[in-house]
Write a structure and sequence with these properties.
The protein has 184 residues and is mainly alpha-helical. It is 72% helix and 4% strand. The protein is elongated, with a radius of gyration of 31 Å. The chain starts with a helix and ends in a 15-residue tail after the last helix.
Length: 184
């Protein structure tokens, strides 16, 4: 009876080892720098161009507002001594109101910029993600890790799937050796 139990235990251990070994062999891991991939997509270049134009427009408007503020401040400082108290208060209020308009414009512009950036990049990220998923399925990858997140401590070059995903997205741009810094 004890011999049978030992034999059954040995069979279970051997079978478990075979199953675990087979499962380990079936897993296939890959990695990709998604930041680098997105930076090479034509859609991202177009989005960056649009965002740059918006940024220049905002900067131009802020400069106009700031120049107006500077001119009014200089005028106030020149004439302050000869102004009545009531006119001084009115000019100070005008300057304070202009400062507040500038701050409000900056805040609104920044919020608007972030919303526009999100609207432009959301479909780009989805396209990249969909392509990564398709490449994973087509090439039997169990897992693909994003090396741009900085959590991948080591990965052999052969497991980098960026070229497969670029091919899927029809990107012909050469892959740079150093990844770009994420845009903020």
């Amino acid at each position: 009876m004890i011999k049978k139990l030992k034999l059954v235990a040995v069979i279970i251990v051997v079978m478990s080892s075979c199953v675990i070994t087979k499962a380990q062999q079936a897993l296939k891991f890959g990695h990709i720098n998604s930041t680098l991939l997105v930076s090479m997509m034509p859609e991202a270049k177009a989005a960056d161009s649009t965002l740059e134009k918006i940024n220049k427009d905002v900067e131009r408007q802020l400069k106009t507002m700031y120049d107006e503020y500077q001119a009014k401040m200089a005028d106030y400082q020149k004439t302050e001594a000869g102004l009545s108290e009531l006119v001084k208060q009115a000019k100070q209020k005008e300057l304070t109101d202009l400062e507040q308009r500038i701050r409000d414009f900056q805040t609104t512009a920044q919020e608007s910029f972030q919303k526009k950036k999100e609207a432009l990049y959301t479909p780009i990220f989805k396209t990249a993600s969909d392509a990564i998923h398709e490449v994973a399925k087509e090439n039997a990858f169990s897992y693909i890790f994003d090396s741009s997140l900085g959590v991948l401590l080591y990965a052999p070059d052969g497991d980098d799937v960026i070229d497969l995903v670029k091919k899927k997205l029809k990107i012909t741009t050469a892959t740079p050796s150093t990844p770009p810094k994420p845009k903020q």
